[in-house]
Amino acid sequence: MTESSAVVIVDKAEVQGNLAGFNQDHQRLLYITFPDAATGQAVLAALRPQLATAEDVLAVNKLYKRMVGERHASHLSVRATWVNILLSMPGLGKLGAEGLDQFPPEFRTSMGSQSGALGDTDRSDPGQWRAPFTGGAEVDALVIVAGDDISGTSLIDARLNEISTLIAGAGGVVVDQQAGDVRPDTQRGHEHFGFKDGISQPTVKGLTRSSKGGDQVPAGEFIIGYPDATGAISGEAGAVLPVPQPGELGYGQPQPPAPVGLPAWTKNGSFVVYRRLQQDVQGFQSSTQSAAATTALAAEAVGAKLVGRWASGAPMERVPGMATGVDPSLSDPSTADPTVLDDNRINNFEYQQHDADGLRVPRAAHIRKVYPRDQQPPGEADAERHRILRRGIPYGPEVVSGESAYPGSGAVPETQDRGLLFICYQASIANGFAFIQSQWVNAPDFPQAGDGVDPIISQQHDGATFTMPPHGPLTLSRWVITTGGGYFFSPSLSAVAELSGQASS
Ligand code: N7H
Is 130 buried (19+), middle (13-18) or exposed (0-12) by CB count in 10 A? Predict the structure, then answer.
């Protein structure tokens, strides 16, 4: 066995828990600043004993699955609230972290400064972002507190108070906080446009178990210090794939040289992207309705073509065991056969052999842009080098009947401010999120000339097009608006100890 094919076991007690997936109903994101190094160290020292590791999270999730999922022991409750901390470049700088000049350029220069490459323009321009991110400003740290409901009561509040008190006691400042919650009742697990989310996730070799048929991806694609898909150790000199430079849009641009290796303390860490993405639900619905009128498709089918799955999560491609004669791209196949939603079927499809032309899932549909699977171009080997672990959660109120249309410009009222707190983990932001967003999502000629932009998350101006064969191009509006966010690093437990000035234990 070569090193790249051997499964290297991830040090679960070192990696922070959200990398394995908190998977809980409520999250509170605390935006933190610390005035100086001593305060930052005190905040880390106070929070370190509170931090959940991947080992903790996997153990509780396994217990939950066994007791509630398999034994249906609903009289038993498996309770946990989780805390993780992420640090930005300014935060690491204040803490005096060593080797920051070895960090990749996109992390050193912030998300806001790359708005051109990411397409964060017009209403998504950093100048319009909400405090504390206005103008692309960065906070020093982001603390995630996550918890479930037990008997209708959220467990998160007590833990949130405890954590806020610890931070304040150490001299840290919680400048603001953001709530994220699963949607209610039948919309549980669905994002605000109504689509089931959290279905297709890569399995991290040596860390997470496969669920829903997610591909096994080497840990080094997500965590620093492990073999990546090429067998190189992530974070070591030359290991990170060449990346697009900010400002270069379009697939296949020339690449700058790979960065020098990351400092040793980054082992078992991961880079994190946080984007507060506001969703114009009524805008999305009225666009799918008008497109339905011109294409003779139902509005639900147009929405499904934009996303690449039905709202139920059912695939639009054929999956094993589907009756002959069923075309899953014309109507939701789970209505007649709910087992297409089973873990071993829902994600069991590719594109190249049976849907190269995008007649079922358009080539620019959201899920096909962000992960083209075996489609040529870019080809499976390349697609597998740009994987991310998504850990987002919806935020904001439900749409109420009679609600007025979203304002085309200016502030969106709090009562209509809803969307997705998009969070993803990867070993390289340039190779993960930033590549996907700038080289695939926003590129109208990826994978092929004229395919158009990702209709869901492309941050192109209103009026961009999306090709939906055989119906031709649709003209899009912007339904997802970036309202804040930043790049962070999720340090290992030992690194938190080291950065806090305490010896690792
Ligand atoms: Fe997406 N949506 O509701 O339309 N996403 N996403 N995403 N997304 C996915 O498989 C959505 C965003 C990915 O493996 C599903 O979990 C919305 C960003 C990736 O086949 C749905 C927003 C980025 C996948 C949505 C949003 C991605 C994925 C299908 C913003 C990265 C897996 C359910 C408001 C740049 C693709 C599922 C695969 C799936 C939606 C954001 C990436 C329904 C509304 C910013 C990699």
Answer: middle
